[in-house]
């Protein structure tokens, strides 16, 4: 009943405020309440979509991400957003360790998150839900509700950033190995450059 009433609110920021208040008052999980609210949203009231993400070449929905690497990247990016929403101040600890290039699935959302935090504004999960497409919003709510109970948020955000860095390094490693496997169209100089880059990637991965 409560989730159904909250789903009728026009503002997702207002929805978040009430979810926090009700969850605290009744001793229930805030994330679980969000998840129930999302179930009651009718198609006409879906979250505002960042259509640029879903239309970009090579960007597929979670259901179409078939490899473990693709799913891990998608999940880790949303986990990163979730932990920053829990504590905006964590951004100061990791802003020099991460860049937009770390994002392959939710780059547009990352740009907005970094823009707001860099100018000193806050971000909330409700605001991010407003700029996510429906599928991403559902997964984001699930992560907030079930996978963000960290004992140490500082350690958690650093671990997540390291995981994102490792994902990008492994992605580039796979690209190089694929090129080297079909090296008939490249000269020996380019092959040597790729092998040197591959060695650097392997060393970097060992430090994470």
Describe this structure in words.
By secondary structure, the chain is mainly alpha-helical. Helices cover 67% and strands 0% of the residues. The chain has eleven helices and no strands. It has helices at 2-6, 12-26, 30-40, 51-55, 68-86, 91-94, 107-118, 125-130, 134-146, 153-181, 188-207. Helix 5 (68-86) runs antiparallel to helix 10 (153-181). The longest helix is centred in the last third of the chain and has 29 residues, at 153-181. Mean pLDDT is 82; it is low at 42-60.
Précis, in short:
This protein is mostly helical and about 210 residues long.
Q: Considering DSSP H and I runs of 4 or more, what fraction of the residues is helical?
A: 55-70%
* Overall average pLDDT: 82
Terminal CA distance: 47 Å
Query: How many helical stretches?
Result: 11
What secondary-structure arrangement, pairings included, does this model have?
Blueprint: H1 2-6, H2 12-26, H3 30-40, H4 51-55, H5 68-86, H6 91-94, H7 107-118, H8 125-130, H9 134-146, H10 153-181, H11 188-207
Helix pairs in contact: 3-9, 5-9, 5-10, 10-11
């Amino acid at each position: 009943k409560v989730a159904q009433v909250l789903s009728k609110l026009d503002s997702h920021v207002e929805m978040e405020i009430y979810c926090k208040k009700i969850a605290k008052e009744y001793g229930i999980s805030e994330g679980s309440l969000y998840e129930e609210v999302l179930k009651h949203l009718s198609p006409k009231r879906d979250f505002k979509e960042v259509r640029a993400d879903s239309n970009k070449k090579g960007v597929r929905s979670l259901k179409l991400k078939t490899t473990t690497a693709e799913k891990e990247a998608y999940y880790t990016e949303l986990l990163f957003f979730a932990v920053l929403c829990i504590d905006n101040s964590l951004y100061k600890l990791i802003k020099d360790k991460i860049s937009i290039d770390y994002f392959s699935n939710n780059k547009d959302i990352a740009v907005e998150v970094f823009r707001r935090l860099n100018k000193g504004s806050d971000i909330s999960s409700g605001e991010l839900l407003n700029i996510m497409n429906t599928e991403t919003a559902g997964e984001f709510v699930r992560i907030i509700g079930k996978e963000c109970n960290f004992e140490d948020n500082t350690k958690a955000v650093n671990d997540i950033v390291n995981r994102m860095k490792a994902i990008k390094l492994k992605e580039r490693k796979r690209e190089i190995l694929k090129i080297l496997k079909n090296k008939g169209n490249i000269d020996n100089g380019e092959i040597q450059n790729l092998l040197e880059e591959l060695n650097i990637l392997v060393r970097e991965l060992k430090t994470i």
